[in-house]
Amino acid sequence: MNQTLDAIFQRRAVRVFEPVEISEGLREQILNAARHAPSSFNSQPYKFYWVRSAAEKVAVAKLCLGQKPAETASALVVVVADLGSLSVTAQGQLAWMRRSNFPEEKIRDYERRAKIGRILFMPGPFGMFAAIKRALFWLLNLWKVLGMPPLSRQDLFKWATKSTSLACQNLMIAAEALGMNTCPMEGFDGRRLSRYLGLCGRHHDIVMVIAIGKKSPAYSEPPQWRRPLDATVTVL
Ligand SMILES: Cc1cc2nc3c(=O)[nH]c(=O)nc-3n(C[C@H](O)[C@H](O)[C@H](O)COP(=O)(O)O)c2cc1C
C-alpha cells in the first residue's frame, strides 16, 4: 500500500510488551514526529514526560492502575496539555520569525494576533472575564457569524486537548513506523500522577499515558472491530 497507511492500519493497542531498550536516537525520532503534529495557532500546548528508568516506570505504572501495558512497557510517555507554556511559545515563535528575517508586516501581524489571543484566552479571577466575554460573544453571534473561542479554564483545557491528542496520534504512528508498538491509556490516577510529576492543576492536565515497547510474542491481539464506514460518515 503506502508506508504511512501501513503504519496506521497496523497500529494496535498492545497490552503486553517484551523488554527491549529504546535508544536515544529512536526516542528522539518518535518525539520529533509527535511535535510535528498540527496545533491550534501553532501553539503546541503540550509537554511529554518520557519515563524510562526502571524505578520511575514502576512508580508511574502503579499510578496507571497497574495496567499490564504500563507494567511491561519499555517507556511510558505521560502527555500533558500545558496552558502554562503559551506565552513563552508565542515569544519563541516571534524570536524565530525575527531571526529568520520575516517581513516586518508579518511579524507585526503575528504580534497582534498573539496579543488578541492572550486577551481572549485569559479567564480572569474566578472565571469573571470568561463570563463577560461569553456574554459579549453570545450577543455578537446573534447577527454575526463567528466561532466561540475557548473562554473558561475548562474550555481552554478542551482546546489544548485537541492539539495534544493529535501529537499523541503522531507519536503512536511514528512509533509503529519505526518498528515499535504502543498502547494509549486514560486509566490512571490523574491527581497522584500530576503530583508525582510536579504538575500544577491551573496549567496542566494529563491527557493520556502512552506505553511504548515491542509487542510480546506471547501476546495475541484480539480481532480489530470498527463501525462500518456508513455508520461513521455522512457525505453531504
Ligand atoms: C483516549 C484513549 C484511552 C485509552 N485508554 C486505555 C486504557 O486505559 N487501557 C487500555 O488497555 N487501553 C486503552 N485504550 C486503547 C483502546 O481500548 C483501543 O484503542 C481500542 O480498544 C481499539 O483497539 P485498537 O487500538 O487495537 O484498534 C485507550 C485508547 C484511547 C484512544
Which SSEs are present, and which pair or pack?
Elements: H1 3-10, E1 17-18, H2 24-35, E2 46-51, H3 54-63, H4 68-72, E3 75-82, H5 86-99, H6 104-120, H7 128-141, H8 153-177, E4 181-185, H9 190-197, E5 204-215, H10 229-232
Antiparallel strand pairs: 1-5, 2-3, 3-5, 4-5
Helix pairs in contact: 1-8, 2-8, 5-6
Bound molecules: flavin mononucleotide (FMN).
Question: How would you portray this structure in words?
Answer:
This protein is α+β, with helices and mostly antiparallel strands and 236 residues long. The protein has a single domain, classed as NADH Oxidase (3-Layer(aba) Sandwich). It is built from ten helices and five strands; from the N terminus they run αβαβααβααααβαβα. Strands 1, 2, 3, 4 and 5 form a five-stranded antiparallel sheet that branches. The chain is globular. The structure holds flavin mononucleotide (FMN). Flavin mononucleotide binds at residues 12-13, 15, 67, 69, 183-187, 208, 224.
CATH level 3 topology:
NADH Oxidase
Quickly give the structural class. Answer: alpha+beta
Q: Tell me the fraction of residues in β-strands, as a range.
A: 5-15%
CATH-derived architecture: 3-Layer(aba) Sandwich
Q: Class in CATH?
A: Alpha Beta
Q: What is bound: which ligands? A: flavin mononucleotide
Order of helices and strands: HEHEHHEHHHHEHEH
Number of helices: 10
For CATH, the homologous superfamily is named as NADH Oxidase
Helix content: 40-55%
